[in-house]
Structures are given as C-alpha cells and as structure tokens.
C-alpha cells in the first residue's frame, strides 16, 4: 500500500474483474493489495438479478459500488482490521477523515446499518 501520511493510504481503485488485487467488488467488499476485505457495520444491496429487490436493488447496488469507488479514489483513508468472517474475508473498517465509509453510504441512502438495519431494498 502507498502511504500518504502515517496510518493513511492513497491508492487507485477500479471495479473488480477477474484480476482482484486492489479493486471494489461491491459497496461493502473490496480487495486491497491482494487481501479480500468485508467492510463491517453496514450492508449494501447485491448486484445480482435474482435477489429480493429485483432491478431496483441491482441499480442501488451499482450506485453504492460506484460511490465507494469514488470515496476510495478521491481520499486518503485508514484501515482497521478485526478478524475474518465465515467466507475467510478480513473484516475491516475504512475511515476517511475519521468517518466510517459505511456511515457515509448510510447517510446517502446507499446502505443500511448491519446487522440490525432495515433491508429497505426488498
């Protein structure tokens, strides 16, 4: 990772394809220099066709993913890790200017609090 100041990083992200090294999978999952990170405390819609919210959920998922990509590419950020989930992804919190990116996405209507938020896209 490229450090921009002590404890902060500045990288160029893209949307993930088959080469997953530093990229955004969706609004709550990224790859950071080869490490799969599931961002904690919030959840975003899934970008698949067979989910509960149909095309509305897919569209919201794409907006959440694009916004996370924009936030990561436009700012320095810090990463805190907290173990792994059942899919062997590292659980993490990303902060921009001290604010959790999940809180930013929630405030913009692109995500919900996890695990106790209302799944409004279904």
UniProtKB/TrEMBL annotation:
Transmembrane segments: none annotated. PROSITE patterns: TNASE_3. Residues 24-112 form the TNase-like domain. InterPro entries: SNase_OB-fold_sf (IPR035437), Staphylococal_nuclease_OB-fold (IPR016071). It comes from the Bacteria. This is Thermonuclease family protein. It comes from Devosia sediminis.
